[in-house]
């Protein structure tokens, strides 16, 4: 099947199809699952990951901060590697990654960073999971949106961070729909729930559930989260319901993921072939008219 997809991509010069094929091959060869956090800027993505992994390694702030995709994973030694767009690599202290990741220190990604990879011994309990922090969407910084959208085909388990205020946008729904083309597992992470009362939280969840059921064939689970003291139980519930099933059934999760990516690639192939067929039919018809 991959040879068929490769042939279609080469014949019709389809870069989007080539990206999907590259993502499929990387997933098939990998022994890890990418747990990627997407969402609007200031939805709390970096803060959530810092809280989850128990280390403030990712920069966070009051303005759009993350400008480069950051990959945090288990490693026997603590390290950070900067991978540049031109293929170069540079090892730096994990305390210095903000100089490459943040919009303040690396505006418009002028340093040409492709990815920042961080290894932490403390993540031994999450061996096999790579936590991916992506730049925020829907900000005035268009290069951040492009960086996240370009990385999207590599997703394994998708977490879409949505704050309780405002609870949902048109872009959030479109993002979830697009993510389901890449992975069978999408979770809506409802962040900053400490800002509302229990009754208000129930209203927000009901509103989101209604909107998602109305717009999507497949609606994601909604999981509340807060990094504030007093909400530590939410971190435990998230680990138990979202992460541990991935760790315990990695082979099954990988097979489901590959199947979804393959179906998406074949659907793309069908689209290209239908376009080609339509174009060929029009050309044939025009030739007949000219001959007549």
Describe the structure.
The protein is an alpha/beta fold. Helices cover 46% and strands 18% of the residues. The chain has 9 helices and 9 strands. The chain has helices spanning 2-11, 15-29, 45-53, 98-101, 142-151, 170-179, 198-215, 232-248, 250-291; strands at residues 33-39, 69-74, 79-84, 89-92, 113-120, 129-133, 157-163, 186-191, 221-224. A 9-stranded mixed beta sheet has the order 4-3-5-2-6-1-7-8-9, sandwiched between helices. Helix 6 links the parallel strand 7 (157-163) and strand 8 (186-191). Helix 1 (2-11) packs antiparallel against helix 2 (15-29) and helix 1 (2-11) runs parallel beside helix 9. The model has no long low-confidence stretch (mean pLDDT 88).
What's the structural blueprint in terms of helices and strands?
Elements: H1 2-11, H2 15-29, E1 33-39, H3 45-53, E2 69-74, E3 79-84, E4 89-92, H4 98-101, E5 113-120, E6 129-133, H5 142-151, E7 157-163, H6 170-179, E8 186-191, H7 198-215, E9 221-224, H8 232-248, H9 250-291
Parallel strand pairs: 1-6, 1-7, 2-5, 7-8, 8-9
Antiparallel strand pairs: 2-6, 3-4, 3-5
Helix pairs in contact: 1-2, 1-9, 2-9
Order of helices and strands: HHEHEEEHEEHEHEHEHH
What value does the average pLDDT take?
88
Q: Pick out the low-confidence regions.
A: none
Beta-sheet strand percentage? 15-25%
Biggest sheet strand order reads 4-3-5-2-6-1-7-8-9
Radius of gyration computed on alpha carbons: 21 Å
First-to-last CA distance: 42 Å
Q: Shape from CA axes?
A: globular
The helicity comes to 40-55%
Structural class: alpha/beta
Q: Report the strand count.
A: 9
How many separate helices?
9
**Biggest β-sheet, characterized?**
9 strands, mixed
